[in-house]
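fyi for ur records
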Amino acid sequence: MTLTAAGVLARRGFHDQAAITTFLEPRLSHLSPPTRMKGRAEASSRIVRAIQKREPICVFGDYDADGITSAAIVSDILRALGGDVSVVLADRFSGGYGLSDEALTRVMETGASLLITCDCGSSDHERLWRATRSGLDTIVIDHHRVPDEPLPVLAFLNPHRPECEFEYKGLASCGLALSLCAAVRAELGSTLDVRQWLDLVALGTIADVAPLDGDNRPLVRVGLAELARRARPGIRALLQIVRHGRGALSAEDVAFRLAPRINAPGRLGSPTAALELLLAKSDGDAIRLAGELDAMCERRKLLDRAMLDEALSMLADPALAAMPAIVLGAQGWHQGVVGIVAGRLAARFGKPTAVIGFDGAFGRGSARGPNGFRLYDALARSREALAGFGGHQAAAGVHVEFAKFERFRELFSESCASMGAPAGGRASDLTADAQLEAEDDPVNVLADLERFEPCGQANPAPKIALLRARVLSLRNLRAGLVRFEVATGGRTIPCFGFDLNTSGVRSGSEVSILGSFRRDTYRGTNSVEMRVLEVHPSGV
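which gave:
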Protein backbone atom coordinates (compact mmCIF):
# COMPACT_ATOMS: atom_id res chain seq x y z
CA MET A 1 0.00 0.00 0.00
CA THR A 2 1.43 3.40 -0.96
CA LEU A 3 2.32 6.00 1.65
CA THR A 4 -0.49 8.60 2.05
CA ALA A 5 -1.48 11.42 4.38
CA ALA A 6 -4.59 9.43 5.36
CA GLY A 7 -2.43 6.55 6.57
CA VAL A 8 -0.21 8.85 8.62
CA LEU A 9 -3.25 10.56 10.14
CA ALA A 10 -4.72 7.22 11.15
CA ARG A 11 -1.46 6.24 12.82
CA ARG A 12 -1.54 9.55 14.73
CA GLY A 13 -5.01 8.84 16.06
CA PHE A 14 -7.16 10.87 13.65
CA HIS A 15 -10.30 8.87 12.94
CA ASP A 16 -13.14 11.43 13.05
CA GLN A 17 -13.79 12.79 9.56
CA ALA A 18 -14.64 16.29 10.81
CA ALA A 19 -11.37 16.50 12.77
CA ILE A 20 -9.42 15.24 9.74
CA THR A 21 -11.03 17.84 7.47
CA THR A 22 -10.33 20.65 9.93
CA PHE A 23 -6.72 19.51 10.26
CA LEU A 24 -6.01 19.15 6.54
CA GLU A 25 -7.98 22.24 5.50
CA PRO A 26 -7.51 24.79 8.30
CA ARG A 27 -9.42 28.03 7.74
CA LEU A 28 -9.55 31.36 9.55
CA SER A 29 -13.24 30.63 10.16
CA HIS A 30 -12.07 27.85 12.51
CA LEU A 31 -10.48 30.34 14.94
CA SER A 32 -11.70 30.43 18.54
CA PRO A 33 -14.15 33.27 19.36
CA PRO A 34 -11.86 36.21 20.27
CA THR A 35 -14.45 37.96 22.43
CA ARG A 36 -13.70 35.49 25.24
CA MET A 37 -10.13 36.79 25.55
CA LYS A 38 -9.80 38.54 28.89
CA GLY A 39 -8.78 42.19 28.53
CA ARG A 40 -9.29 42.40 24.77
CA ALA A 41 -12.36 44.63 24.87
CA GLU A 42 -10.87 47.01 27.45
CA ALA A 43 -7.61 47.25 25.51
CA SER A 44 -9.40 47.90 22.23
CA SER A 45 -11.56 50.67 23.65
CA ARG A 46 -8.54 52.45 25.18
CA ILE A 47 -6.60 52.27 21.91
CA VAL A 48 -9.59 53.57 19.94
CA ARG A 49 -9.85 56.53 22.31
CA ALA A 50 -6.14 57.25 21.88
CA ILE A 51 -6.44 57.16 18.09
CA GLN A 52 -9.51 59.40 18.05
CA LYS A 53 -7.90 61.96 20.37
CA ARG A 54 -4.50 61.74 18.63
CA GLU A 55 -2.79 60.71 21.85
CA PRO A 56 0.82 59.59 21.42
CA ILE A 57 1.08 55.79 21.70
CA CYS A 58 4.29 53.88 22.42
CA VAL A 59 4.57 50.25 21.34
CA PHE A 60 7.28 48.36 23.23
CA GLY A 61 8.53 45.01 21.93
CA ASP A 62 10.97 42.40 23.13
CA TYR A 63 14.18 41.82 21.16
CA ASP A 64 13.33 38.41 19.65
CA ALA A 65 11.31 37.57 16.54
CA ASP A 66 7.99 37.24 18.38
CA GLY A 67 8.47 40.58 20.13
CA ILE A 68 9.66 42.30 16.94
CA THR A 69 6.85 40.96 14.73
CA SER A 70 4.29 41.82 17.42
CA ALA A 71 5.60 45.38 17.65
CA ALA A 72 5.61 45.64 13.85
CA ILE A 73 2.01 44.40 13.61
CA VAL A 74 0.64 46.71 16.29
CA SER A 75 2.52 49.83 15.18
CA ASP A 76 1.86 49.34 11.46
CA ILE A 77 -1.86 48.65 11.86
CA LEU A 78 -2.46 51.44 14.37
CA ARG A 79 -0.67 53.89 12.09
CA ALA A 80 -2.83 52.70 9.19
CA LEU A 81 -5.86 53.39 11.40
CA GLY A 82 -4.68 56.94 12.13
CA GLY A 83 -2.70 56.41 15.33
CA ASP A 84 0.31 58.51 16.41
CA VAL A 85 2.70 55.65 17.20
CA SER A 86 6.36 55.35 18.19
CA VAL A 87 8.18 52.06 18.77
CA VAL A 88 10.79 51.13 21.37
CA LEU A 89 12.46 47.71 21.52
CA ALA A 90 14.17 45.97 24.41
CA ASP A 91 17.95 45.67 24.21
CA ARG A 92 19.64 42.50 25.41
CA PHE A 93 22.77 44.43 26.39
CA SER A 94 21.14 47.55 27.84
CA GLY A 95 18.48 46.53 30.31
CA GLY A 96 17.95 43.02 29.00
CA TYR A 97 14.66 41.19 28.53
CA GLY A 98 11.34 42.88 29.01
CA LEU A 99 10.37 46.27 30.35
CA SER A 100 13.58 47.03 32.24
CA ASP A 101 14.36 50.29 34.01
CA GLU A 102 16.39 51.44 31.00
CA ALA A 103 13.59 50.49 28.62
CA LEU A 104 10.94 52.30 30.64
CA THR A 105 13.07 55.44 30.61
CA ARG A 106 13.21 55.30 26.81
CA VAL A 107 9.44 54.74 26.69
CA MET A 108 8.77 57.77 28.91
CA GLU A 109 10.99 59.92 26.70
CA THR A 110 8.56 59.39 23.79
CA GLY A 111 5.93 61.43 25.64
CA ALA A 112 3.32 58.72 25.15
CA SER A 113 0.16 58.57 27.26
CA LEU A 114 -0.54 54.94 26.28
CA LEU A 115 1.97 52.07 26.34
CA ILE A 116 1.41 48.70 24.66
CA THR A 117 3.97 46.03 25.51
CA CYS A 118 4.49 43.13 23.11
CA ASP A 119 5.82 39.70 24.15
CA CYS A 120 6.77 40.88 27.63
CA GLY A 121 5.31 42.50 30.71
CA SER A 122 3.77 39.52 32.51
CA SER A 123 6.42 39.68 35.23
CA ASP A 124 7.46 43.36 35.02
CA HIS A 125 5.41 44.50 38.01
CA GLU A 126 7.86 47.06 39.41
CA ARG A 127 8.28 48.98 36.12
CA LEU A 128 4.56 48.78 35.39
CA TRP A 129 3.85 50.33 38.78
CA ARG A 130 6.27 53.15 37.89
CA ALA A 131 4.50 53.67 34.58
CA THR A 132 1.08 53.77 36.24
CA ARG A 133 2.22 56.24 38.91
CA SER A 134 3.57 58.44 36.10
CA GLY A 135 0.11 58.56 34.50
CA LEU A 136 0.92 56.17 31.68
CA ASP A 137 -1.90 53.77 30.79
CA THR A 138 -0.50 50.36 29.92
CA ILE A 139 -1.75 47.38 27.92
CA VAL A 140 0.27 44.16 28.14
CA ILE A 141 0.26 41.63 25.28
CA ASP A 142 2.17 38.52 26.32
CA HIS A 143 2.03 34.72 26.31
CA HIS A 144 4.62 33.90 28.95
CA ARG A 145 3.93 32.38 32.34
CA VAL A 146 1.55 34.41 34.50
CA PRO A 147 2.72 35.19 38.05
CA ASP A 148 0.33 35.12 41.00
CA GLU A 149 0.54 38.86 41.69
CA PRO A 150 -1.93 40.91 39.57
CA LEU A 151 -0.45 43.37 37.07
CA PRO A 152 -1.05 47.09 37.68
CA VAL A 153 -2.23 47.71 34.12
CA LEU A 154 -5.33 48.83 32.27
CA ALA A 155 -5.57 45.57 30.29
CA PHE A 156 -3.62 42.30 30.21
CA LEU A 157 -3.94 39.96 27.22
CA ASN A 158 -2.46 36.55 28.01
CA PRO A 159 -4.43 33.32 27.39
CA HIS A 160 -2.62 31.67 30.30
CA ARG A 161 -4.38 33.91 32.82
CA PRO A 162 -6.56 31.57 34.95
CA GLU A 163 -9.58 33.83 34.46
CA CYS A 164 -9.16 34.03 30.66
CA GLU A 165 -11.88 32.00 28.91
CA PHE A 166 -10.28 32.17 25.46
CA GLU A 167 -10.30 28.56 24.33
CA TYR A 168 -6.90 28.25 22.66
CA LYS A 169 -3.88 28.81 24.91
CA GLY A 170 -1.06 28.42 22.39
CA LEU A 171 -1.05 31.80 20.62
CA ALA A 172 2.29 33.56 20.43
CA SER A 173 2.31 37.28 21.18
CA CYS A 174 2.13 38.14 17.47
CA GLY A 175 -1.15 36.22 17.19
CA LEU A 176 -2.53 38.06 20.21
CA ALA A 177 -1.36 41.36 18.72
CA LEU A 178 -3.24 40.78 15.48
CA SER A 179 -6.40 39.78 17.38
CA LEU A 180 -6.30 43.00 19.40
CA CYS A 181 -5.74 45.08 16.27
CA ALA A 182 -8.69 43.35 14.60
CA ALA A 183 -10.84 44.44 17.56
CA VAL A 184 -9.62 48.03 17.20
CA ARG A 185 -10.32 47.98 13.46
CA ALA A 186 -13.86 46.72 14.08
CA GLU A 187 -14.57 49.25 16.84
CA LEU A 188 -13.44 52.08 14.56
CA GLY A 189 -15.65 50.75 11.76
CA SER A 190 -12.66 50.60 9.40
CA THR A 191 -12.52 48.36 6.33
CA LEU A 192 -8.76 47.76 6.71
CA ASP A 193 -7.96 44.11 5.91
CA VAL A 194 -5.70 42.93 8.74
CA ARG A 195 -5.09 39.59 7.01
CA GLN A 196 -2.20 41.23 5.15
CA TRP A 197 -0.25 41.12 8.44
CA LEU A 198 -0.60 37.35 8.77
CA ASP A 199 2.83 36.97 7.16
CA LEU A 200 4.32 38.49 10.33
CA VAL A 201 2.11 36.28 12.51
CA ALA A 202 3.49 33.21 10.74
CA LEU A 203 7.05 34.45 11.09
CA GLY A 204 6.78 35.27 14.79
CA THR A 205 4.80 32.15 15.72
CA ILE A 206 7.21 29.75 14.02
CA ALA A 207 10.30 31.58 15.29
CA ASP A 208 8.99 31.39 18.86
CA VAL A 209 8.48 27.61 18.53
CA ALA A 210 4.83 28.02 19.48
CA PRO A 211 2.62 24.94 19.00
CA LEU A 212 1.39 24.61 15.42
CA ASP A 213 -1.99 23.21 16.34
CA GLY A 214 -5.37 24.76 17.19
CA ASP A 215 -5.73 28.41 16.19
CA ASN A 216 -2.08 28.67 15.21
CA ARG A 217 -2.63 26.17 12.41
CA PRO A 218 -4.92 28.34 10.23
CA LEU A 219 -3.09 31.54 11.23
CA VAL A 220 0.27 30.15 10.14
CA ARG A 221 -1.08 28.28 7.10
CA VAL A 222 -2.57 31.49 5.68
CA GLY A 223 0.47 33.45 6.87
CA LEU A 224 2.83 31.18 4.94
CA ALA A 225 0.82 31.83 1.79
CA GLU A 226 1.07 35.57 2.49
CA LEU A 227 4.84 35.25 2.94
CA ALA A 228 5.08 33.46 -0.41
CA ARG A 229 3.23 36.38 -2.07
CA ARG A 230 6.21 38.58 -1.14
CA ALA A 231 3.98 41.64 -0.90
CA ARG A 232 6.08 43.15 1.90
CA PRO A 233 9.39 44.68 0.65
CA GLY A 234 11.29 43.38 3.67
CA ILE A 235 10.09 39.81 3.15
CA ARG A 236 10.79 40.07 -0.57
CA ALA A 237 14.37 41.17 0.10
CA LEU A 238 14.91 38.53 2.79
CA LEU A 239 13.74 35.73 0.49
CA GLN A 240 16.16 36.98 -2.16
CA ILE A 241 19.00 36.94 0.35
CA VAL A 242 18.33 33.31 1.31
CA ARG A 243 17.85 32.39 -2.37
CA HIS A 244 14.41 30.94 -1.94
CA GLY A 245 12.61 30.26 -5.22
CA ARG A 246 9.18 31.57 -6.13
CA GLY A 247 7.37 28.54 -4.73
CA ALA A 248 5.56 27.95 -1.45
CA LEU A 249 7.29 28.28 1.92
CA SER A 250 7.21 25.68 4.65
CA ALA A 251 7.42 26.30 8.38
CA GLU A 252 10.93 24.83 8.19
CA ASP A 253 11.94 27.48 5.64
CA VAL A 254 10.83 30.15 8.10
CA ALA A 255 12.45 28.48 11.11
CA PHE A 256 15.86 27.90 9.55
CA ARG A 257 16.20 30.65 6.96
CA LEU A 258 14.09 33.69 7.85
CA ALA A 259 13.75 33.62 11.64
CA PRO A 260 17.52 33.43 12.38
CA ARG A 261 18.06 36.62 10.39
CA ILE A 262 15.25 38.45 12.19
CA ASN A 263 16.73 37.34 15.52
CA ALA A 264 20.36 38.11 14.65
CA PRO A 265 20.42 41.88 15.38
CA GLY A 266 18.91 41.40 18.84
CA ARG A 267 21.44 38.68 19.62
CA LEU A 268 24.42 40.85 18.76
CA GLY A 269 23.20 44.34 19.70
CA SER A 270 20.18 46.49 18.95
CA PRO A 271 17.24 44.69 17.27
CA THR A 272 16.10 47.86 15.49
CA ALA A 273 17.34 46.82 12.04
CA ALA A 274 15.00 43.80 12.07
CA LEU A 275 12.00 45.99 12.88
CA GLU A 276 13.00 48.48 10.19
CA LEU A 277 13.22 45.66 7.64
CA LEU A 278 9.71 44.40 8.42
CA LEU A 279 8.30 47.93 8.19
CA ALA A 280 10.36 49.04 5.15
CA LYS A 281 8.26 50.68 2.43
CA SER A 282 10.82 50.69 -0.39
CA ASP A 283 12.77 47.89 -2.06
CA GLY A 284 15.98 49.90 -1.75
CA ASP A 285 15.76 50.19 2.03
CA ALA A 286 14.65 46.56 2.32
CA ILE A 287 17.56 45.21 0.27
CA ARG A 288 20.07 47.22 2.32
CA LEU A 289 18.59 46.08 5.63
CA ALA A 290 18.29 42.45 4.53
CA GLY A 291 22.00 42.51 3.68
CA GLU A 292 22.81 43.88 7.14
CA LEU A 293 20.75 41.15 8.82
CA ASP A 294 22.38 38.45 6.72
CA ALA A 295 25.87 39.66 7.69
CA MET A 296 24.85 39.69 11.37
CA CYS A 297 23.49 36.17 11.03
CA GLU A 298 26.81 34.94 9.59
CA ARG A 299 28.68 36.56 12.47
CA ARG A 300 26.28 34.94 14.93
CA LYS A 301 26.94 31.53 13.37
CA LEU A 302 30.68 31.92 13.93
CA LEU A 303 30.08 32.81 17.57
CA ASP A 304 27.73 29.93 18.34
CA ARG A 305 29.95 27.39 16.55
CA ALA A 306 32.91 28.43 18.69
CA MET A 307 30.83 28.34 21.87
CA LEU A 308 29.36 24.95 20.99
CA ASP A 309 32.85 23.53 20.50
CA GLU A 310 33.85 24.83 23.95
CA ALA A 311 30.71 23.40 25.51
CA LEU A 312 31.31 19.98 23.97
CA SER A 313 34.87 20.03 25.28
CA MET A 314 33.53 20.69 28.78
CA LEU A 315 31.14 17.76 28.45
CA ALA A 316 34.11 15.47 27.84
CA ASP A 317 34.37 15.56 31.65
CA PRO A 318 32.63 12.30 32.72
CA ALA A 319 31.28 13.91 35.89
CA LEU A 320 29.45 16.62 33.92
CA ALA A 321 28.31 14.21 31.22
CA ALA A 322 26.74 11.91 33.82
CA MET A 323 24.56 14.59 35.44
CA PRO A 324 20.79 14.53 34.75
CA ALA A 325 20.96 18.10 33.42
CA ILE A 326 23.56 20.10 31.53
CA VAL A 327 24.61 23.38 33.14
CA LEU A 328 27.56 25.14 31.51
CA GLY A 329 28.92 28.65 31.76
CA ALA A 330 32.04 30.70 31.15
CA GLN A 331 33.32 34.24 31.42
CA GLY A 332 33.08 35.99 28.08
CA TRP A 333 30.55 33.69 26.46
CA HIS A 334 28.33 35.85 24.27
CA GLN A 335 24.97 36.27 25.97
CA GLY A 336 23.22 36.68 22.62
CA VAL A 337 23.91 33.12 21.47
CA VAL A 338 23.61 31.11 24.69
CA GLY A 339 20.04 30.15 23.78
CA ILE A 340 21.10 28.66 20.45
CA VAL A 341 23.84 26.60 22.10
CA ALA A 342 21.50 25.48 24.88
CA GLY A 343 18.97 24.34 22.28
CA ARG A 344 21.57 22.37 20.34
CA LEU A 345 22.91 20.67 23.44
CA ALA A 346 19.39 19.80 24.63
CA ALA A 347 18.60 18.31 21.22
CA ARG A 348 21.87 16.39 20.99
CA PHE A 349 21.89 14.95 24.51
CA GLY A 350 18.18 14.85 25.31
CA LYS A 351 18.63 16.58 28.67
CA PRO A 352 17.41 19.87 30.22
CA THR A 353 20.19 22.36 29.49
CA ALA A 354 21.22 25.78 30.76
CA VAL A 355 24.06 27.77 29.18
CA ILE A 356 25.26 30.99 30.81
CA GLY A 357 27.55 33.75 29.60
CA PHE A 358 29.25 35.60 32.46
CA ASP A 359 30.49 39.18 32.48
CA GLY A 360 32.23 39.55 35.81
CA ALA A 361 30.13 38.81 38.89
CA PHE A 362 26.90 38.07 37.02
CA GLY A 363 25.81 36.21 33.93
CA ARG A 364 22.76 35.79 31.77
CA GLY A 365 21.81 32.52 30.19
CA SER A 366 19.14 30.48 28.49
CA ALA A 367 17.60 27.15 29.36
CA ARG A 368 16.06 24.64 26.98
CA GLY A 369 14.58 21.20 27.56
CA PRO A 370 13.46 18.06 25.77
CA ASN A 371 9.90 18.05 24.41
CA GLY A 372 7.37 17.80 27.20
CA PHE A 373 9.73 18.57 30.07
CA ARG A 374 8.51 21.29 32.50
CA LEU A 375 11.58 23.51 32.32
CA TYR A 376 10.08 26.52 34.08
CA ASP A 377 9.04 24.37 37.04
CA ALA A 378 12.58 22.97 37.32
CA LEU A 379 13.97 26.51 37.41
CA ALA A 380 11.39 27.52 40.01
CA ARG A 381 12.69 24.74 42.25
CA SER A 382 16.20 26.13 41.76
CA ARG A 383 15.32 29.77 42.45
CA GLU A 384 17.46 29.83 45.61
CA ALA A 385 20.57 30.02 43.40
CA LEU A 386 19.16 32.42 40.80
CA ALA A 387 19.16 36.20 40.71
CA GLY A 388 16.16 35.95 38.41
CA PHE A 389 14.46 33.84 35.75
CA GLY A 390 11.49 33.94 33.40
CA GLY A 391 9.96 32.31 30.35
CA HIS A 392 7.82 29.20 29.92
CA GLN A 393 8.04 25.41 30.10
CA ALA A 394 9.93 24.99 26.81
CA ALA A 395 12.39 27.90 27.00
CA ALA A 396 13.50 30.31 29.69
CA GLY A 397 16.11 32.88 30.60
CA VAL A 398 18.17 32.96 33.79
CA HIS A 399 20.22 35.57 35.66
CA VAL A 400 22.97 33.95 37.73
CA GLU A 401 25.58 35.24 40.16
CA PHE A 402 28.99 33.74 39.33
CA ALA A 403 29.55 32.82 42.99
CA LYS A 404 26.34 30.73 42.93
CA PHE A 405 26.94 29.01 39.60
CA GLU A 406 27.93 25.63 41.06
CA ARG A 407 25.01 25.76 43.47
CA PHE A 408 22.66 26.42 40.56
CA ARG A 409 24.09 23.45 38.67
CA GLU A 410 23.52 21.25 41.72
CA LEU A 411 19.97 22.44 42.40
CA PHE A 412 18.88 22.38 38.76
CA SER A 413 20.22 18.85 38.28
CA GLU A 414 18.48 17.66 41.44
CA SER A 415 15.22 19.31 40.35
CA CYS A 416 15.37 17.79 36.87
CA ALA A 417 16.09 14.32 38.28
CA SER A 418 13.22 14.53 40.77
CA MET A 419 10.86 15.65 37.99
CA GLY A 420 11.69 12.66 35.81
CA ALA A 421 13.91 14.33 33.22
CA PRO A 422 14.91 11.98 30.38
CA ALA A 423 18.14 10.09 30.97
CA GLY A 424 19.50 11.42 27.66
CA GLY A 425 19.63 10.42 24.04
CA ARG A 426 17.43 11.31 21.07
CA ALA A 427 15.92 8.01 20.02
CA SER A 428 12.89 8.05 22.32
CA ASP A 429 10.68 10.25 20.10
CA LEU A 430 12.11 9.25 16.73
CA THR A 431 9.48 6.77 15.59
CA ALA A 432 8.58 6.49 11.92
CA ASP A 433 5.08 7.49 10.85
CA ALA A 434 5.42 5.39 7.73
CA GLN A 435 7.85 3.44 5.56
CA LEU A 436 8.61 4.37 1.94
CA GLU A 437 7.82 1.43 -0.30
CA ALA A 438 9.36 0.73 -3.72
CA GLU A 439 6.19 1.84 -5.52
CA ASP A 440 6.02 5.18 -3.66
CA ASP A 441 7.12 8.15 -5.75
CA PRO A 442 8.77 10.66 -3.33
CA VAL A 443 7.40 13.61 -5.34
CA ASN A 444 3.82 12.38 -4.96
CA VAL A 445 4.38 11.44 -1.33
CA LEU A 446 5.67 14.93 -0.52
CA ALA A 447 2.76 16.59 -2.32
CA ASP A 448 0.36 14.52 -0.19
CA LEU A 449 2.20 15.04 3.10
CA GLU A 450 2.57 18.80 2.55
CA ARG A 451 -1.04 19.03 3.71
CA PHE A 452 0.38 18.52 7.22
CA GLU A 453 1.97 21.96 6.94
CA PRO A 454 2.65 24.00 8.93
CA CYS A 455 4.83 21.46 10.73
CA GLY A 456 6.78 22.07 13.88
CA GLN A 457 6.09 22.11 17.61
CA ALA A 458 3.03 19.93 18.47
CA ASN A 459 2.68 18.94 14.80
CA PRO A 460 5.97 17.38 13.65
CA ALA A 461 6.59 16.69 10.00
CA PRO A 462 5.73 13.06 9.21
CA LYS A 463 8.79 10.88 9.79
CA ILE A 464 9.53 8.44 6.99
CA ALA A 465 11.73 5.37 7.14
CA LEU A 466 13.89 4.27 4.21
CA LEU A 467 15.17 0.71 4.63
CA ARG A 468 18.20 -0.79 2.88
CA ALA A 469 18.99 2.27 0.77
CA ARG A 470 22.39 2.29 -0.95
CA VAL A 471 24.74 5.22 -0.26
CA LEU A 472 26.00 6.82 -3.49
CA SER A 473 28.10 9.61 -1.93
CA LEU A 474 28.85 11.08 1.49
CA ARG A 475 30.30 14.47 2.49
CA ASN A 476 30.91 15.87 5.96
CA LEU A 477 30.70 19.67 5.76
CA ARG A 478 31.15 22.47 8.29
CA ALA A 479 29.11 23.00 11.43
CA GLY A 480 28.13 19.34 11.68
CA LEU A 481 26.30 19.29 8.32
CA VAL A 482 26.34 15.96 6.49
CA ARG A 483 25.19 15.61 2.87
CA PHE A 484 24.78 12.32 1.06
CA GLU A 485 22.77 10.66 -1.70
CA VAL A 486 21.03 7.30 -1.56
CA ALA A 487 19.42 5.04 -4.14
CA THR A 488 16.18 3.29 -3.26
CA GLY A 489 13.36 1.87 -5.37
CA GLY A 490 15.18 2.85 -8.56
CA ARG A 491 15.35 6.52 -7.49
CA THR A 492 18.08 8.81 -6.16
CA ILE A 493 17.24 10.90 -3.09
CA PRO A 494 19.52 13.71 -1.85
CA CYS A 495 19.80 13.71 1.96
CA PHE A 496 21.19 16.05 4.61
CA GLY A 497 21.33 16.20 8.39
CA PHE A 498 23.11 17.87 11.29
CA ASP A 499 25.22 16.18 13.98
CA LEU A 500 24.50 12.73 12.55
CA ASN A 501 26.31 9.65 13.76
CA THR A 502 27.65 8.31 10.44
CA SER A 503 29.95 5.60 11.83
CA GLY A 504 29.81 2.61 9.50
CA VAL A 505 28.20 4.67 6.75
CA ARG A 506 30.22 4.95 3.53
CA SER A 507 29.75 5.04 -0.23
CA GLY A 508 28.42 1.72 -1.46
CA SER A 509 27.05 0.65 1.92
CA GLU A 510 23.39 -0.02 2.70
CA VAL A 511 21.69 2.12 5.32
CA SER A 512 18.36 2.63 7.05
CA ILE A 513 17.25 6.24 7.36
CA LEU A 514 14.67 8.10 9.42
CA GLY A 515 13.75 11.61 8.33
CA SER A 516 11.23 13.83 6.58
CA PHE A 517 10.78 14.85 2.96
CA ARG A 518 11.02 18.47 1.89
CA ARG A 519 10.95 20.30 -1.41
CA ASP A 520 14.42 20.96 -2.85
CA THR A 521 14.05 24.54 -4.06
CA TYR A 522 17.59 24.60 -5.45
CA ARG A 523 16.93 21.72 -7.87
CA GLY A 524 13.39 22.73 -8.81
CA THR A 525 9.86 22.56 -7.45
CA ASN A 526 9.51 18.88 -8.45
CA SER A 527 12.69 17.80 -6.66
CA VAL A 528 12.60 16.17 -3.23
CA GLU A 529 15.28 15.88 -0.58
CA MET A 530 15.28 14.29 2.85
CA ARG A 531 16.13 15.95 6.15
CA VAL A 532 17.67 13.04 8.05
CA LEU A 533 17.27 12.57 11.80
CA GLU A 534 19.02 9.19 12.05
CA VAL A 535 21.06 7.01 9.71
CA HIS A 536 22.35 3.52 10.52
CA PRO A 537 24.10 0.79 8.56
CA SER A 538 21.39 -1.71 7.54
CA GLY A 539 21.03 -4.48 10.09
CA VAL A 540 22.09 -2.26 13.01
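The chain has three domains: 5-11+30-288, 315-426, 431-537. thats all i got for now
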